[in-house]
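Hey,
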Amino acid sequence: MAKSKPKIRYKMHVKKGDTVQVISGDDKGKVGEILRAFPETSKVLVKGVNFRTRHIKPRQEGESGQILTEEFPIHSSNVMHYSNKEKVASRICFTFNEDGRKVRKLKKTGEIID
């Protein structure tokens, strides 16, 4: 019996629910919310970005086929956090708030994400 490889989970700078801007690729400049993160492949699914078209054959006689367009994951290195207030993309840093809790903060605007 062959041994299976252990699953690698990459550390990513974005989480589900974050607002991000695409910084490279065909959808460069688009802004969307992260719907799902895939740490095994270091990819994220962003709402309204990287649409793929899928054709579905009819399964039964008399049924019509379909053409579906759906979002497809992109690599996490191609997105950057985005501030809706200032309309600017920024890197993040970690800081502590008044309660002593560690939170994420945008470097350019100082806006707290968490």
